[in-house]
Amino acid sequence: MNILVTGGTGYIGSHTCVALLEAGYNIIVADNLCNSRVEAIDKIQQITNEDVTFYQIDVIEEKSVETLFSKHKLDGVIHFAGLKAVGESVKIPISYYYNNIVSTMVLAKACQKFGVKRFVFSSSATVYGDNTVPFVETMDLLPTTNPYGETKAMSEKILTDIAKANPEFSVALLRYFNPVGAHANGLIGEAPNGIPNNLMPYVTQVAKGKLDKLRVFGNDYPTTDGTGVRDYIHVLDLAEGHVAALDNLKEGAHIYNLGTGKGTSVLELVKAFEDANGIEVPYEIVDRRPGDVASCYADVSKAKKEFGWTAKRDIIAMCRDAWRFEKNLKSY
Ligand code: NAD
Ligand code: WQD
Fold it and tell me: Model pTM?
């Protein structure tokens, strides 16, 4: 089967390319490299010993997308391409709405035109807003605090309406929780530009000495130790979740949480990182970060029941693999 992977040189996309190739899928990657590097293609090929076809295109451009669809007989699309920095989305909302929503529409339209019936979309747990944990797929969505989150909720709605009107169109809307870690060989991983916004890359950069200490955003939340609780999921488990979703697609649009179902606080993650790697991570407690929720973790029973998929790697493996990648980063 030929699968188009948009955003396939990015963090989650590159790991999913590896998982797809290992599962026997043939892949075509489309990425404009606005937040990734073309070297990821070499690394994917190196890890899997398989060939990857790459197009440096912008998937909001209908003409480029249609040219690609006309060159390959595609069986499905996994749409990762998108802008994802929550804070930036508040500053430049038009870029986020335009990129993330137009890309979804252009790709869905090309699927209709070229008879491609399988579509997997990267959504986010952020669409649950401040619901009560654990988050279940049947919950009503609450407003998110930023344009990024709204682009995910709107893309889900657009794809759901398209699937309603075209019953043969099968869509999986995958709500990721907090992906962390890297491939165990340290060749691919998360390499954010500038100072990281997310916890794990911040911690790895403190461990490396690039940043002096972690700032823990608040210790007065109603959680076990007062710090924010999240459902961290190893990126390889997430990648395998995409293969499971693709293998089990059914007609209509269906939502699935991809998480572990376990909550870990900021201080628990710091401790796990120190235990896994034998490196101290200095930190200080500072004010809460605006827009953060206290707790966010998944009910994971639906993906288990329908895909037979569960996350296998624990928080120690996530910390170990994240650190291995950070150490190797200069060669990336
Ligand atoms: P990433 O930035 O590493 O990867 C996204 C890729 O898309 C990049 O390679 C970028 O160059 C590409 N891209 C962006 N706009 C494009 C366009 N118009 N045309 C072609 N390529 C384009 O991000 P990631 O962490 O791998 O995230 C992948 C997807 O998963 C995104 O849609 C993101 O919103 C979603 N997601 C990520 C997280 C997370 O914490 N990382 C959580 C939930 C959902
Ligand atoms: C995790 C915890 C912070 C940094 C974001 C997006 C979400 C999704 C995943 C895309 C929180 C705390 C963090 C730091 C800290 N992305 N923290 N010091 O906010 O759960 O989710 O990434 O879809 O949409 O919002 O992840 O890693 O930023 O934070 O104390 O320097 O770590 O307060 O409790 P978050 P995160």
Answer: 0.98
